[in-house]
Amino acid sequence: MLGHATRPRSAGLRGISAPSVAMVGLAGLLVVLLVLPLAALALSVPPSAIANAALDPAVEVSLGYTLLASGLALLVSLGLGVPLGYLLARREFRGRRLVESVVLLPLVLPHLMAGLALLLVFGPDTSLGRALAAAGFPVWGSLWGVVAVMVYVSTSYLVQASEASFRRVDPEMIGVARTLGASPADAFLEVTLPLSLRAILGGAALSWARALSEIGGFLVLGYAVYPWPTGSHQPVWSPLSILVYNDYLIDPEEAFAVAAFLLLIALGIFLVANLLDLLWARRRAPLSGVEP
Amino acid sequence: MTPGTLRLEGLVGSHPGFRLGPIGLDLAPGEVVTVLGPSGSGKTTLLRAVAGLDHLLDGEALWEGQAITRTQPEDRRMGYVPQGLALFPHRTVEQNVAFPLLLDGERRTGAAVRDLLDRFGLLPLSHRYPRELSYGQRQRVAMARALASRPRVLLWDEPLSALDVVARDDLIEVLREVTGPSGPSLLLVTHDPSVAYSLADRFLVLSSGTVSFLGTPGDFLRSPPDAFGARFAGYENVWERAVLLGEPTAWSRTLLEHSGPWGLAFSASSLKVGAGERKEVEIACSVRRVHWTPEGVVVGLQAHGHHLVLRMPPKEGPPAIGSPLTVSISTSDLHPMGAESSGGDLASNRP
């Protein structure tokens, strides 16, 4: 083992040990497994079919619906998730660990079960479901149901990201801000939030992506939003995932074209998000409040 | 009460597994009190308690006679600089220093901020971020930022640590300028004796959360409070009372007569080679080790199983290792540890 400790680092193959080769091989295998289906999807559909899918009124209507629902879900998640993340990071209270575990529950629940569980609370036969319907927010079979499912399955990512980012801000920094004249609100807005924002936005992006990809919960709680199966590819005010699923059952070629179009959109969002993150990182170097 | 005075009355704070206090102190306008003590003695806890950042179990903090114990940190105007500095990494040097003014609604960096940047030599660095600065530069930013809030009292935790001697002496000069009779008073935690002696009007020594000494540096040198204090004072020979009690020799009895409640201490240079005169204590030793320093030859001695350190002038040749050597010390060079030389200052610090 002494030989390993004294061996100089080498850029050539001679300096790479067998465990390193194995690790690189396994990592490479995983990357290929992740990329291969996406590449196959992109390559299996001719560009003209993707262009047709992009101009398809049914896709456009569903895309609009999905963006609206996921946007609303993101607003709700931000409004509820960031304060919870802050409390979990900054306050010691009885049951904090229990709340942390509860926040993680939707991540481990099968998606259909999440829809069924929500149906038991917001369904048309429940008192809460009836009360919300009477107030103009019928959850079952409506946009609100889809938003509810999206919030339920995606907020955990945002809470986790918020909690982790708030936890990274040095409490001493908040204390010093207070002694410099900052009220608790000033300290949050001027110190905690700017230092946490990048990570929170990262969590929001993840949460949004999770909401966009949901389908299991919709099939239960939002069932009536799409008269499945319709038997034809019609513009219907419904989530894209339902449209693709329905197309797959009826007309797989159409489903692949829409899926390839969605893949392009997802890649575009991914690239723009990464570019913005890179620009942010260059402008303000440290992510956390911890001094280097 | 005198305007500009901070008074701590029986202040008791706590952290999990640690209790601070009771602490009593009157900090006069412009006064510099250096807080000393071993690690874990409560120095930082004291500063945080005064800043209002930690909950107090008991006692009062008063500013000009008015209780501020329940005043929020933002309304106390205590310029706290923690050991980690806590600079805002998303703000430039100038934005860090201007932070207190921005909170006051001053949207433009005023002349006051530029003056502070200039005074701390930060003008050329004003557009840099903290990560782009050396530790010494960051220390200066933290000091300038604390001063920008126009504090009544400065609470600084090791502000000059990890600096080279020249940079440290420069900053000590700046600190002398910004404190002083017309400036804020300063409660300064340091482990560096040269910083402490350069700036302090008084020393406050903490030991396990309680005050073991409160008085002038002169009092401190005459009678350090305990073994930690004696080491901080620079005395190489520290004899605890229990050790002297267990030693049956004539010299140990004489030392015991001159020791304080915790024992006594003396410097290596106050020991002389050879027999002493009437008022001197003679100790027969053997030479254990010898090494050279710019100030002279340092000789490690052993007497009845106890270690002593002797410093001889450079012109005297070092004794041979293992050879017998008689040393002597004048009783006037003995410093009792724990003798209350600080008058009534400690009275309010008794549990």
What does this structure look like?
Chain A is mostly helical and 292 residues long. Helix content of chain A is 76%, strand content 0%. Chain A contains 13 helices and no strands. In chain A, helix 3 packs across helix 13. The radius of gyration of chain A is 24 Å and the shape is globular. Chain A starts with a helix and ends in a 9-residue tail after the last helix. The relative contact order of chain A is 0.13. In chain B, a hairpin with a 2-residue loop joins strand 1 (6-15) and strand 2 (18-27). Chain B is α+β, with helices and mostly antiparallel strands and 351 residues long. Chain B folds into two domains: 6-224, 3-Layer(aba) Sandwich (Rossmann fold), CATH 3.40.50.300; 229-337, Beta Barrel (OB fold (Dihydrolipoamide Acetyltransferase, E2P)). Chain B has a six-stranded mixed sheet. A five-stranded antiparallel sheet of chain B has the order 13-17-14-15-16. A four-stranded antiparallel sheet of chain B has the order 2-1-4-5, with helices on one face. Classes of the chains: A mainly alpha (292), B alpha+beta (351). The A-B interface holds A 170, 172-173, 175-183, 186, 190-191, 194-195, 284-286, 288-289, 291-292 and B 48, 51-53, 72-74, 76-82, 84-90, 99-100, 102-104, 129-131, 138, 145-146, 148-149, 155.
